[in-house]
Amino acid sequence: MIQTALQMARYAMDAPLTETTATSVIEMGQQKPGVCRTLSKQLLRSGTSIGANVKEAQSAQSDKDFLSKLEIALKEERETEYWLEILIEAELVDKNKFESLLQETREIGKILVASTRKVKEKIKQ
């Protein structure tokens, strides 16, 4: 059963959702020059790092390595969420477009939290 949970966690973290979000981050980051440029660069880095770390986790050498990569992805998700919130609150971006990206990012965060919990449970056994 635990192995199935681990397999489900790995499946849940498959590329489509994180790649779609990363693509959206790239597109959104190109919209506003000037003041928004620095924030967009930070958003670009953290937003694309989520999927990269998830992809790397899929080739983990152990459960602990897998967990480590997922935890890094979770940290990047939280940073991405932060930058999106800043851009929205500062009214530097179209709120309607970025709210949906923020929601996607939060969904990824929930998946990562659930996945890391399952892996931690498996490791404890």
Key descriptive features of the protein:
mainly alpha; 5 helices; 125 residues
Overall spatial form: elongated
* Overall residue-averaged pLDDT value: 82
Stretches with pLDDT under 50, minimum 5 residues: 1-5
| Largest sheet data | none
Order of helices and strands: HHHHH
From the N-terminal CA to the C-terminal CA, the straight-line distance is 12 Å
Structural class: mainly alpha
> With helices defined by DSSP (H or I, 4 residues minimum), what is the helix count?
5
Proportion of residues in β-strands: under 5%
Strands, total number: 0
Indicate the radius of gyration in whole angstroms. 15 Å
Helix content: over 70%
Description:
85% of the residues lie in helices and 0% in strands. It has 5 helices and no strands. It is elongated, with a radius of gyration of 15 Å.
Structural topology:
Layout: H1 2-12, H2 15-29, H3 35-57, H4 63-89, H5 95-124
What can be said about this structure in brief?
This protein is an all-alpha fold. Helix content is 85%, strand content 0%. The chain has five helices and no strands.
